[in-house]
Write the structure tokens for this entry.
Amino acid sequence: MTRPFVVLVAVVSMLGCGEATPLVTAPPKHEPFLMLAAVYVTPCATNFERIARGKDFGVSVGQLDATGTRVEPVEASFGLTDAAGAAVAFELPRQGTLVTRFARAGRYELTATLADGATLRQDLEVVEQAGLRLSPVYRRVTTHAAAGDCADTQSGVYAGPGPVSLALNQALETSVVPCDAEGVPLLGAVEFELSSGELNVSKSTTWLGPNSYRFEPTRAGRGVVHVTDRATGQRAELEFDVTADAATCPAQQ
């Protein structure tokens, strides 16, 4: 039975950079810094990778609190220009946050001016979205075993292209992200529909917050989840290879 879902997703991000893949230098302690305003598929909330054209994209100014564990918003005025120096429209949904939707691919410059006159600057690159794929960075596989459930969280491993391998007694929790022609994920919020005849697709309630979804096979063999970008009409197939052999949980110490 096909189950349609209409979802709005933005791909997952964290403030800190993983030790295995330190893509950027951590921001100076207690000094304001630019960061991604929503959850995206990058190991660091301060890692500005390429952005999908036509998708909502947000930037914030933040500052670590005295404990160094919480980010507080910082008031700032923003400027956004294209490569020719022309101003680009944006919205300010809350203090210290800019949201925009780039109409054209190309390079842009973002500036944030703080109350003391200091300026933060960030170059942005916007590219065409070629398709959709499962998040390659943040995935969690739950195994339903006789002795109880166990979960394997893969947040520091980059999953390559190709079908996801699951056992019939496993479920995958992750998100769907925009990507370029080579399958490299892009930043930006995606509104899409999901449907499948071989897997149950539901909202995840246990991991990665409101933007995570659960893919659970119902039979062995090849499984496909059809995804359609509601804004562009692009369609993609998310493939799963499901084995009937039951997976087991690691032995408890």
Remarks:
- The longest strand covers residues 56-64.
- The CA atoms of residues 198 and 233 lie 23 Å apart.
